[in-house]
Write a structure and sequence with these properties.
Strand 1, helix 1 and strand 2 form a beta-alpha-beta unit. The chain is an alpha/beta fold. Strands 1, 2, 3, 4, 5 and 11 form a 6-stranded mixed β-sheet that branches.
Length: 287
């Protein structure tokens, strides 16, 4: 039996969507999934180096790895009227070239931020350190992600919602693409289809059994927040829209890649659905 590395972030939605597999509720046919947890930019950088078979990534990274990894249709996080927040100390005014902390060069929020604030001076750091960096004055502002958008210090205030940046840049009417998963192209296609289907079922099972799974994660100390915050966070990022990408979500991804291309961050303009695992292969083989 093959060991397949599956890397995800330690934030609540990723853990929630993966742990139906970790708890043995679902397994792939011919492999054992071995999970690794790391912050999202660490995973982005690891995927650039080809370290993992399956990996959670920021959607903004994908054009850089498209030749080596296929885009998965499941375990996705989109914002619908919400998302990362640009925060600062209360009562302060940001200069044109303010210092800002971002959670990583290849994160989606970094791409949108750099388009919207071309004169800002950027520092990259672990997302868990951003709030403190703003509070102690290391930076003037920072973009909070994951659970931090719900739990930040009362001495801080929102300068701008990245959702509003997205609406302004995209023209509106689309969800904000944040994170998804990818799979190494060298994996044989029949195995790739099985692994993706296993992950789809895991997200679906987790979503349907949230009242059972969420308390289990809290009891085992796998989640950084309390039960009430977890419930609110899962409403945002691990829900029915996370199970399988919709046409509207593909359209949003394409808009993200169009914005990146037009602003000089990508060499080529890509369409997201051209880079999915071709599941029609199984249908053809069954005939």
């Amino acid at each position: 039996m093959k060991n397949i590395s599956v890397a995800h972030s330690p934030d609540a939605d990723d853990i929630f969507m993966y742990y139906a597999i970790k708890f043995g509720w679902l397994t792939p046919k011919d492999a054992k999934f071995e999970n690794i947890a790391a912050d999202i930019e660490t995973l982005n950088q690891a995927t650039l180096k080809g370290e993992y078979d399956i990996c959670a990534i920021s959607f903004a990274l994908y054009p850089f790895i498209k030749d080596d990894y296929a885009l998965l249709k499941t375990a996705v996080s989109f914002g619908e009227g919400y998302g990362p927040k640009l925060i600062k100390r209360k009562g302060t005014k940001l200069k044109r070239n303010f210092k800002v902390a971002l959670s990583g060069e290849f994160t989606t929020n970094a791409l949108l931020f750099k388009i919207a604030y071309p004169n800002a001076r950027i520092s990259y750091m672990n997302f868990l350190d951003i709030e403190k960096a703003v509070l102690d004055g290391t930076v003037d502002a920072g973009v909070l992600i994951h659970e931090s958008i719900l739990t930040y210090d009362q001495e801080l205030e929102v300068e701008r919602e990245m959702w509003d940046v997205w609406v302004e840049l995209s023209g509106g009417g689309l969800p904000l693409p944040l994170g998804g998963m990818c799979l190494r192209r060298s994996i044989p296609i029949h195995s790739a289809i099985d692994y993706e289907n296993t992950l789809i079922k895991a997200v679906e099972v987790a979503n349907k059994n949230r009242k059972v799974l969420a308390p289990m994660l809290l009891e085992k100390g796998l989640i950084r927040v309390d039960a009430q915050t977890l419930d609110k966070y899962l409403d945002l990022y691990a829900n029915d829209n996370s199970v399988l990408m919709s046409d509207l979500q593909y359209k949003a991804l394409d808009k993200l890649y169009e914005l990146g291309y037009k602003n000089g961050f990508y060499e080529n303009l890509i369409k997201s659905q051209d880079f999915l695992i071709p599941t029609e292969y199984e249908e053809l083989r069954a005939r």
